[in-house]
Amino acid sequence: MEIRPKYLILFDLNGTLVCKTRTKLKCTREPDLSFKKMLQVYFRPELYHILPPLLKNPLVKVGVYSSMKAQTIDLILTSLLDKLSVSSQKSSILVFDRKFCIPDPFAEKIQDTLKDLAEIWKSEAATRFSFDNSNTVLLLSLIHIS
User: Fold this and answer.
1) What is the Cα–Cα distance from 60 to 85, expressed in whole angstroms?
2) Mean pLDDT value across residues 130-142
């Protein structure tokens, strides 16, 4: 009998799983990923202890939420999962990209958006597993809360 996931563990990609910057950080560490030298991505060190066990746990479904475009999320996830040696788990991750965000009426930049959990819970992926406000755990960086 197949075990159905009971919980959605939803990570905010930038800030929680990775640190995305326009310039290199002033540290000895090199970026884990660079996009045309215009975007530097650093994987958060705690990921190595948190993400692999969650991906292997049949009671949870891991999701990633971001205002980035789907193709950028895909590149980051592919690199991240390869580094964690769990690339075979990529297809099991639910990805909620910019389409699940709404414009921030107070934002200065067009890419600044609000993440609307109701949009996620209405998605085909979430309804397939009956995820809603009672069984979703949201992990995010407080720096990015508006």
Assistant:
1) 19
2) 89
Residue type, 55: L
Helix (H) or strand (E) holding 51: helix 47-56
- What value does the CA radius of gyration of the chain take, rounded to a whole number of Å? 15
pTM of the model: 0.85
Residue 1 has pLDDT above 70, yes or no: no
- Enumerate residues 6+ apart whose C-beta is below 8 A from 50: none
Residue 66 has pLDDT above 80, yes or no: yes
18: which 2 tokens? 């990775």
Pairing mode of beta strands 7-12, 60-65:
parallel
Is the backbone of residue 37 left (phi > 0), alpha (psi -120 to 50) or beta? left
